[in-house]
Write a structure and sequence with these properties.
Length: about 100
């Protein structure tokens, strides 16, 4: 299968997919395998890279390219907050869980 042409859209989609994978939104684990834990610092880096791209290309994008980049950033930032909040709730719940009987405490 040939590689797609190197376009601005492909670059944005590649960085967006990278952020989504780091957030745990794209799962490529085989059946029965546990999904990978979100890697928030790496996801933040991919989002920040897209943000830098938007800043550095201001005035040089078509309307469609600018919308693609802005919409991708909006969605990824929203998802980042969602995943961050879910992780915080999971950690709080785990901290509140009583010690297992017989653990000697």
């Amino acid at each position: 299968m040939p590689l797609p042409p190197p376009t601005f859209e492909f670059l944005v989609f590649s960085l967006k997919a990278q952020a989504e994978m780091r957030l745990g939104l794209l799962n490529f684990a085989a059946d029965g395998e546990q999904a990978q834990e979100p890697d928030l610092p790496s996801a933040r880096h991919a989002i920040d890279t897209l943000s830098m791209l938007l800043e550095k290309t201001k005035g040089n994008l078509t309307l469609e390219e600018q919308r693609l980049l802005e919409n991708s950033l909006t969605e990824l930032r929203f998802r980042f907050v969602q995943v961050s909040e879910e992780r915080a709730k999971e950690k709080a719940k785990a901290a509140e869980a009583p010690a297992e009987p017989g653990s000697g405490g």
